[in-house]
Design goal:
This protein is α/β, with parallel strands linked by helices. The protein is built from twelve helices and twelve strands. The radius of gyration is 37 Å and the shape is elongated.
């Protein structure tokens, strides 16, 4: 909860201008004087307390006028409480095909990152870090995860247990394309799923099936991929077209992200004899252009999003991907703000009236002047 101070009728504060002008005039004024033929007697007489505070009634009146002006402007304290919103059910479909090993960075950028003692993140690593931050910022949204390569699997159903979901995301191992034997199907690095394909249609189907019976007021699928439909039993447009045929209250929006463009992508270089990563004399991984370009299909991803009322993001590098995801959060996950207004004018009014009362009492008693 955050607090701030404001005025309901701030234009009343303009009345402080004449109050300040009056204060300036009174400060320049001098107390009344008497003319004496000789000052010898006057100098011998002590200056009394009343003479020293002759200005006090005027000061009280000016301060009281200022307080009353502030009270008329109606000062208020605003307490804003951020609410988590209505709660959205979200399924994330994350591409784990082999092309997600690619790095979208120039040689200069890679060299700069390695000079700092680290290695650049590939497409999958970038997507995972951005998704982890996205999940941490959820409050009442249920989030689930589907992973896909040549096939699609449900990794985690929609849940509010973000800790377990994050742990599941951390446990994913991307297929690096290496095998113990050229005829072997199991990847050498113990990958979570085979990366030989991009089954977008199957991934959307599995994600939608987890949302089909959801009672949430809003449902959405976030598809993150770097390729075109390759493999799988279902085409990429089957699920979006089915969703579009449903009544509006049952529809699911699909937001698609194409990560990487292939224009400036690189992959880790592999020793053809040993099957290990090539490193330089400093132990840093070496990168090279892929032997063949990774096919993309932005038109397909745009269609998938538009058919369901979602949006398509073409995230050609990590910085653009992060920016696009922030844009998705800003436009889709609107945070509701509950504002409490607490009136603060009464203390100002009360203090102003008290000072006016004190001024009148002083003028009629201790600091009474003649003639009145």
């Amino acid at each position: 909860m955050t607090s701030s101070f404001t005025f309901e009728h701030p234009w009343f504060l303009l009345a402080l201008v004449p109050v300040l002008a009056l204060a300036w005039v009174r400060l320049r004024a001098r107390p009344a004087t008497l003319r004496f033929s000789s000052l010898r007697t006057a100098r011998k007489s002590a200056v009394g307390a009343r003479a020293r505070v002759w200005w006090l009634p005027d000061a009280l009146r000016i301060i009281a006028a200022g307080l009353l002006v502030v009270a008329m402007a109606r000062p208020q304290q605003l307490d804003r409480e951020l609410l988590s919103g209505e709660g959205i059910d979200i399924m994330i479909a994350l591409d784990m095909s082999g092309s997600m090993n690619a790095i979208d960075a120039s040689e200069e950028e890679i060299t700069k990152i390695q000079a700092s003692g680290s290695e650049p993140l590939n497409r999958f690593g970038t997507a995972r870090e951005i998704l982890k931050q996205f999940i941490r910022e959820r409050k009442s949204d249920r989030v689930g995860l589907v992973i896909f390569g040549g096939e699609a699997f449900l990794r985690f159903p929609p849940t509010l247990d973000y800790v377990r979901l994050l742990n599941s995301l951390d446990g994913l191992v991307l297929d690096n394309g290496r095998r113990h034997d050229q005829h072997e199907t199991n990847c050498a690095n113990g990958c979570t799923i085979s990366g030989s394909g991009t089954a977008i249609g199957d991934a959307l189907n599995r994600a939608y099936m987890r949302l089909e019976n959801s009672t949430a007021k809003s449902k959405m699928i976030i598809l993150i991929t770097d390729g075109k439909q390759e493999g799988g039993a279902m085409t990429a447009l089957t699920v979006p077209k089915y969703i579009a045929s449903l009544p509006k209250r049952e529809q699911v929006r699909i937001y698609t992200f194409q990560v990487g463009s292939g224009r400036d992508s690189r992959v880790a270089a592999v020793d053809p004899l040993r099957g290990t990563l090539l490193r330089d004399r400093f132990g840093r991984i070496q990168y090279q252009r892929p032997q063949r370009p990774f096919p993309t299909d932005p038109d397909l991803l745009r269609q998938v999003a538009e058919i369901t009322g979602g949006a398509f993001y073409q995230s050609y590098d990590p910085a653009k991907f992060a920016k696009d995801f922030r844009d998705l959060e800003r436009t889709t996950f609107k945070v509701k703000v509950h504002t409490n207004r607490k009136e603060m004018f009464f203390p100002w009014l009360l203090l102003g009236l008290i000072l006016l009362g004190c001024e009148q009492v002083l003028r009629l008693t201790w600091l009474r002047t003649f003639p009145t």
